[in-house]
Amino acid sequence: MLEPLRHHEPQDNFLEEVRKIANDIGAVLIFDEVSSGFRFVVGGVHLKYKVYPDIVVFAKGMSNGFPMSAIIGKKEVMESAQDSFISSTYWTERIGPVAAITTIKKMIKNKVPQKLEKTGEYLIKNLKRIVEKNHIEMEIIGLPALMHFSFQYGEKNRAIETLFIQEMLKGGIIASSGIYVSYAFKKEHLDKYLKTADKVFAILKEAIDKNMVEKLLNGPVAQSGFKRLT
Fold first, then answer.
1. Residue 68 in contact with residue 59, Cβ under 8 Å?
2. Yes or no: is domain 14-109 CATH 3.40.50.12780?
3. Which distant-in-sequence residues (6+ apart) come within 8 Å of 65 by Cβ?
C-alpha cells in the first residue's frame, strides 16, 4: 500500500516495478489517492501513469470537502468483501454521494486538474521570484497542484516556519509550508498571498540575519507532524 504521488513524481519506473513485484508474489496492490486523486487527473493519478493497482482509495477530494470516500478495484479483489460483513449507520446518507457526483461532473466540465496546474505554476514561478529577491534559502518541491516548500537553515527551520505562519496570519493569510491549490483560487487571491509573502520574507531575512527569529514569536515554536505524540 502506497501513495503513488505526493511531493515527488515517481522515478525510474517505480510504480511499474512495484506492480511487477506485487504480481510476482501474489500481493494485492493498493494506491492511497486520498490526496492525489482528482487533483491531477479526474479519476486518479494511476490513470496518468497507466499503472493499475488492485484497489484505489479516494476521499473528500472527490466531493469538494463533504464527508465522502470511495474504494474501487478489480472485480476479483473487490469480491472478497462478500466473505466478510460490512455494516454502517450511514447507509442511507445521501449528501456525500450527491456531492461527489456533482463535484466530479464539474471537474470534467471545467477541466479542473488543468486549472489547478496553471494556478500552481503561477504560484511557484512568483514564489521563486520573491524568495530570490529577499535572499531566503528555501527549497520548493512538488508538482504545481500539490507544492511544498522548506526553509534551509538547519535546526532553525521550524522556528522560521513558525514566524512565517505568524506573520502571514497578521496579513490575513492562513498559511503553512504547503499550498494545495484550489479551483476557487482567483488571481486576486494568489496576488494577495504573494504580496503578503514578499513582506513576510523581508521580515524573516532580517530576523535570520540578526538571530532574532524566536524573539519575534508570539508563542512557542510549532511542532512538526506527529512529533508531539512521540
1. yes
2. no
3. none
